[in-house]
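idk why but the lab printer keeps eating my pages so im just putting this in chat instead. protein + glycyl-adenosine-5'-phosphate:
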Amino acid sequence: MTKDMDQIISLCKRRGFIFPSSEIYGGFAAVYDYGQLGVELANNIKRAWWKSMVQKRDDIVGLDSSIFMHPKIWEASGHVGGFSDPLTECKSCHTRSRVDHLLEEVDVFADEKMSEEEINELFSANMKKIHCPKCGNSDFSEVKSFNLLVKSNLGNFTGDWTKEPVYLRGETCQGIYVNFENVLDSSRKKLPFGIAQIGKAFRNEITARQFIFRTREFEQMEMQYFTSPDKEMEEYEKLRQVRWQYYIDLGIKEENLQWHKHENLVFYAKEAYDIEYRFPFGFKELEGVHARGNYDLTQHSKFSGQELTYTDPTTNEKFIPHIVESSVGVGRTMLAVLTDAYHEEEAPTAEEGETDKRVVLKLPFSLAPFKIAVLPLSKKEPLTDISRKIATTLRDDWMVQYDETQSIGKRYRRQDEIGTPFCVTIDFDTPEDNKVTVRHRDSMKQERVSIEDLGGYIREQK
Ligand code: GAP
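predcted complex ->
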């Protein structure tokens, strides 16, 4: 089934996964808010990542570094000088677009290493074939580089902050690099070891496209693995395998994933691959897995004047550690997870008062915002009283939704749409036999289970 982006966006809004930011003020481009279900899904994604990258690893520790950092860090990292996208403006409607994206539309691919002049030439040569995504015109302004770092005026109360700006971090990994020595000294880790972090990053993305795929404020989950130079590629291969398996374990269908090898590497990189996911708009980058050499610590050493080296305790050899990195966005993972889970299907059996078509999010148990819905067949005692008690008990372990409104068929459909794996129905026999009906989301199979065994039953099935 081809997944339609509009259907996913509509479900996200309708059910409270994702809202446009500042909507009552007309919205705020390329920024989104997670609603009551989105925050649960995002937390579950972050939990799964943390479990895989930190909890289950003896060789990786966590970190939570600040969003504001010394501005020199962004000079050392190359972001002040080179973190930019080529931009053009439509001469007719003044819409700004990324030149590499416009070129892609006509199957021309700009090389990441191209200078502004070279991109300008390539763009001019192809301009007649290219159309403005808004008005269709084919006349554009000259290409200009546009820096993606977001400036702030933090702490600079008197001076001109546009000249001496502080930046909101453009990626979380710089906080890891600058804490390398702190973690090394305080954790007594030996190479190879990694530092993992989840946190917000900010970028002045030029084009607001594709929902939460590319936003101006987003969360990254990054792990930087420090290794000796001779082990870099070996560790890189291991990391590639770990990251592929992570998505399979997360429940993503393997046929919707592929590797993309970067052909034009930045000068310091040894190798770079992206894991791409089949989004509704085609295969696109989900995460980057890169072998970065010793560039990052070398740069921070140079700009800070601090030695950032490691001495091998057995050989006494001193060197600047090399880094292999894994970097992925929470929102981008969420879009992949939602796309993978979204299904429209004919329900094999018609349930009370419903058509045979249903939308169902087949989310794995670990990611589903609510694990169980508790549904009394009537709004009256004693069914509501029993139901509320069941919900309270289950809430000790899981996120549980209690719902007593509308027909049971409508309530099942509502839970299908938000991916709740189990519905527990309390009916008129329950006060007599102390049993409830458990309905499974994907198979729609129903089983009678005693209230006493309910927790154990759910634990066994999930
Ligand atoms: N430290 C490396 C780094 O930041 P990147 O390719 O710029 O590399 C890594 O970003 C990941 O972060 C991407 O694969 C994507 O999942 C996520 N990401 C990057 N920019 C994003 C944006 N504007 N909106 C949402 N996610 C983004």
